[in-house]
Amino acid sequence: MQAEVIIEVPFHDVDAMNVVWHGYYLKYFEIARCKLLDQFDYNYRQMQASGYLWPVIESHVKYVQGIQFQQKIRVRAILKEWETRLKIEYVIFDNETGQRLTKGYTTQVAVDIQSKAMCFQSPKILFERLNAWADFHPLKES
After folding, report:
1. What sign results for the dihedral spanned by CA atoms 84, 81, 35, 126?
2. How far apart are CA 129 and CA 85, in angstroms?
3. CA torsion angle for 8, 3, 105, 62 (degrees, to 10)?
4. What is the mean pLDDT of the chain?
5. Residue 36: pLDDT above 50?
6. Scanning 13, 37, 56, 91, which has the fewest C-beta atoms within 10 Å of its C-beta?
7. CA distances (Å), origin 73, targets 31, 67, 76, 113, 119
8. Do residues 77 and 29 make contact, with C-beta atoms less than 8 angstroms apart?
């Protein structure tokens, strides 16, 4: 499962060298991640309503080439793991050329809101949402 968003880099995201400040790459990842989570109706509001928070516990960014002001980028988020945690991989491309600019991943775990305990397995609601999505989006045969 994956999702993509196109973003035009705003001026307030670049530094004095006209390159996106390194911390904003995680913001771009998050925008794509939210679109991915929306696909199976389990974004942050639904997570909280189901009794769980999903904090990011790990993030990694590999800066391949700098992104500049007004550059249009395509950010792809790919769900890679979900049984014990959410691991989402990201790739940022130049929207015009398709050149890969950045890649990375984030890892999130479920935390029970009431007990504040970290879950060692993803909660049942996540599997229900993923299965419901899969029921309407069967895999294409090659």
Report:
1. negative
2. 15
3. -40
4. 94
5. yes
6. 56
7. 12, 8, 10, 36, 35
8. yes
pLDDT band at 142 (very low <50, low <70, confident <90, very high): very low
Residue 126 in tokens: 């996540």
How far is it, in rounded angstroms, from Cα 47 to Cα 38?
11
**φ/ψ of residue 104, rounded to 5:** 180, -170
Distance CA 63, CA 78 (A): 18
Both tokens of 6, joined, read 């196109």
Strand positions, DSSP E, the chain: 2-8, 52-53, 56-63, 72-81, 86-94, 100-108, 111-112
Contacts of 47 (CB under 8 A, 6+ apart): 53, 54
Model confidence, pTM: 0.91
The residue type at 45: R
Q: Which residue has the tokens 């309503």?
A: 49
Token pair of 63 as six digits:
């800066």
Q: Which two tokens stand for residue 74?
A: 């395509």
Per-residue confidence band for 137, with pLDDT thresholds at 50, 70 and 90: low
